[in-house]
Amino acid sequence: MASPPSSARPARIVVLVSGSGTNLQALLDAIAADPDGFGARIVAVGADRDDITGLERATRAGLPTFVCKVTDYGSRAEWDAALAEAVSAYEPDLVVSAGFMKIVGQEFLARFGGRTVNTHPALLPSFPGAHGVRDALAYGAKVTGCTVHFVDDGVDTGPIIAQGVVEVRDEDDEAALHERIKEVERTLLVEVVGRLARDGYRIEGRKVHVGE
Ligand code: GAR
């Protein structure tokens, strides 16, 4: 699959969040620091819940927001279709799942597969799922980190774009380790999104080629 965004205009990005949105903020800051050079702009921010700092960050940045709550729909498939519809209204070139704590389904992937990027707080394929930091710590891993990958129909199984490594310290608890991972993660996500937008990419099986 090849999806280089057009070089004639900045890539349009929809970001999905569920929580504090510090990864979103890192993207906002990087784009604000170099609006012409970054190669992308965020056109909307979506969430699966209200009252989260991530949405406040988007509003502060003057961006439109939308919320798709699973509980507002009769089934998971209906929710997924509604999310796909809400995202498609903003015609994104890339969708960035930045701490979005829901698994997207068939309808979403039919529209945005191959251009949805997720960031995960572990070195995939180790410790997928909702508790990547806790699981690595409980396992006794000595290094962990973060993975930016394309989303496929599995749980954190899609083709890997980039990873960052973080050492686990003896004194770490989940919060401390997650905070150090997020420092690396924010930088990595900004770098990856910028490169995908500026340089284009190809996905061949499990391999992602950026700018080739
Ligand atoms: C990030 O560490 C992200 O990797 C993680 O949630 C955090 C969101 O932080 N996502 C997952 O665990 C998904 N399985 P943020 O809201 O401050 O950007």
TrEMBL record:
Q: Which domain of life is it from?
A: Bacteria
In what pathway does it function?
Purine metabolism; IMP biosynthesis via de novo pathway; N(2)-formyl-N(1)-(5-phospho-D-ribosyl)glycinamide from N(1)-(5-phospho-D-ribosyl)glycinamide (10-formyl THF route): step 1/1
Pinpoint the Formyl transferase N-terminal domain residues: 12-193
Signal sequence interval, chain numbering: none
Say yes or no: keyword Transferase present.
Answer: yes
What the entry lists under Gene3D superfamilies is as follows: Formyl transferase, N-terminal domain
Annotated site (Raises pKa of active site His)? 156
Its annotated function is as follows: Catalyzes the transfer of a formyl group from 10-formyltetrahydrofolate to 5-phospho-ribosyl-glycinamide (GAR), producing 5-phospho-ribosyl-N-formylglycinamide (FGAR) and tetrahydrofolate.
Active-site residues per Swiss-Prot or TrEMBL entry: 120 (proton donor)
Going by the UniProt record, its keywords in alphabetical order are: Purine biosynthesis, Transferase
Q: Is Zinc-finger given among the entry's keywords?
A: no
**UniProt name for this protein:** Phosphoribosylglycinamide formyltransferase
The record's EC number reads: 2.1.2.2
Positions binding N(1)-(5-phospho-beta-D-ribosyl)glycinamide in this chain are 21-23
Q: Which family does it belong to?
A: Belongs to the GART family.
Which organism's genome codes for this protein?
Answer: Streptomyces sannanensis
Where does this protein hold (6R)-10-formyltetrahydrofolate? 76, 101-104, 118
Its UniProt entry gives the catalysed reaction(s) as: N(1)-(5-phospho-beta-D-ribosyl)glycinamide + (6R)-10-formyltetrahydrofolate = N(2)-formyl-N(1)-(5-phospho-beta-D-ribosyl)glycinamide + (6S)-5,6,7,8-tetrahydrofolate + H(+)
**Which Pfam families does UniProt cross-reference here?**
Formyl_trans_N
CDD domains attached to this UniProt entry: FMT_core_GART (cd08645)
